[in-house]
Amino acid sequence: RAAAKVQITITPSEKVSFTEELMALSGGYMVRNMPVRTTLTAEGGYPLNDAGTNPYWKSSTISQSPYFEMIPIEDSEGNIVNYSVKLTLYCYSHTWRKDEAFERGTSVVVMLPMIYDGETYINNYYQISFSKREGTGDDSYHLIKRNTYYDLRINLNAPGAEDFTTPETIEDIHYFTAPW
Predict the structure, then answer these.
(1) Rounded mean pLDDT of 83-96?
(2) Residue 121 to residue 160: CA distance in whole angstroms
């Protein structure tokens, strides 16, 4: 198997509420620059396709799929008091050197309508990087390894950006990895 599995769990803070009704209106995700093919190329270059774009990375449109789940959070009596969001994705391995990850690195943009501190926010876009920066200085890199499970956990505590082209980047991510 040449793929990696990425699971992202987003848990709301005390001031944030997710509801099924709001998520049905506009919740979803889109993947940016996901490695969809694996290949060997000479000199480390990536060939372009007939349209002049790179065929090895794809970006999607915003969607909800079976991989985008709302998980009930219950109180001690079994009543649903909120929801967390779980997103599961699969992609091929890749390494990005230095700041290249910010131009072409794989990330997911999630749209999470919410109630924050009593006020409803419909358009909330957040960008989540699949991998954390490894190394320092010129030797730094981001990578997605094959046969690796990535578990990203996020505690969401504020509304995001209103436009998906400039999503709020989530920096406080707890990364866990394991062989898969």
Answers:
(1) 82
(2) 9
Q: With the CA atoms of 165, 168, 169 and 170 taken in that order, what torsion angle do they form, in degrees rounded to the nearest 10? A: -140
Please give the Cα distance from 61 to 30 (Å, whole number).
Answer: 5
Predicted pLDDT of residue 151: 93
- In a 10 Å sphere around its CB, with 0-12 CB exposed, 13-18 middle and 19+ buried, how is residue 85 labelled? buried
Three state DSSP letters for 84-150: EEEEEEEEECEEEECCHHHHHCCEEEEECCEEECCEEECCCEEEEECCCCECCHHHCEEEECCCEEE
Number of separate helices (H) and strands (E) present in the chain = 2, 16
What H or E segment, with its residue span, contains residue 176?
strand 174-179
CA atoms of 48 and 55, how far apart (whole Å): 6
Quote the CA–CA distance of 27 and 13 in Å, as a whole number. 18
Calculate mean pLDDT across residues 31-43. Answer: 53
* Confidence at residue 34, expressed as pLDDT on a 0 to 100 scale: 60
Which segment of 113-117, 119-123, 127-131, 169-173 scores lowest on mean pLDDT?
127-131
**pTM for the whole structure:** 0.77
Separation of alpha carbons 140 and 170, rounded Å? 20
Q: Mapping DSSP to helix (H, G, I), strand (E, B) and coil, where does residue 26 land?
A: helix
